[in-house]
Amino acid sequence: MDWESFYDTHPSPSNYESIITAVENFVCSHENEKMVLITSGGTTVPIEQNTVRFVDNFSLGTRGSASAEYFLDAGYVVIFLYRSNSLEPFVRHFNNSLLDKLEIVDDKSIQVKQSEFDTLYPILKKYKDAKNANRILTVPFTTLIEYMWLLRGSCMLMDTKYSLLYLAAAVSDFYIPPSEMAEHKVQSNDGPPMIALRLVPKVLYAVTHIWAPNAYIISFKLETDYGILEQKSKGALIKYKHQLVIGNLLHTRKRNVKLIGQDGVIEDILLTDEDIKNGIEIEDLIVSNVKAKHDQFFKSQK
Q: Quick one: angle between helices 62-73 and 282-300, nearest 10?
């Protein structure tokens, strides 16, 4: 199935219009400002219409949520299109430990432990500044179909040289059309289910040529085999004609990535043991590099 047929045969989510209206209002309020759309987290593929079970992609949303913070630091306005319950900017620092940083005072109030103030304050300050200045919009999705619709709608609103599309979500390559799903929970006493997965259409061509051809577009390539990483990254650039692929391997992605551009130049970003010891995140280095590339692209456009 091609991408046009996908949208023709899969209705938009029930809340699509209200979400896209919010995105449109946000984009319009930041006209002629550098803006980044970050996609983050994995997509679910339900196997029942009344969903109990689903196929999921491996992704906590680490890359996207961390990058959002560094893009804000770099002066960008951020639209964060993320999987519900995956990591979010700022909140990611306290995902499993926030309650340990608080204490009850005289059974009447709650406050941050003094020992945790220096950790919590700068993160909370950045979060409040971004929200109060309306510089970040978070847009959740859960299923693959929700993601596909929200991606298309958002990209079509960001077709300018000011826009950067940072497509870091782990999107499923396979799915089950709703028309082929069981209506109710698949019962185990019926024996092993026979499930036929369909290929998800590649929409990157539509992103680069139809929805947002004037934006600076970055895709991500995650592999487990080093031998094919560069080849597949270069192949994507040739096929889709976007500006940059960020390639990484599953087991080293937190300390080493490759930036592969249309000119064939490959840049390695590598965190040293000293960097890690000092709390430097690789997303900080990625965003700094990407910002410089977007700046050059911006100046080259009429």
A: 60
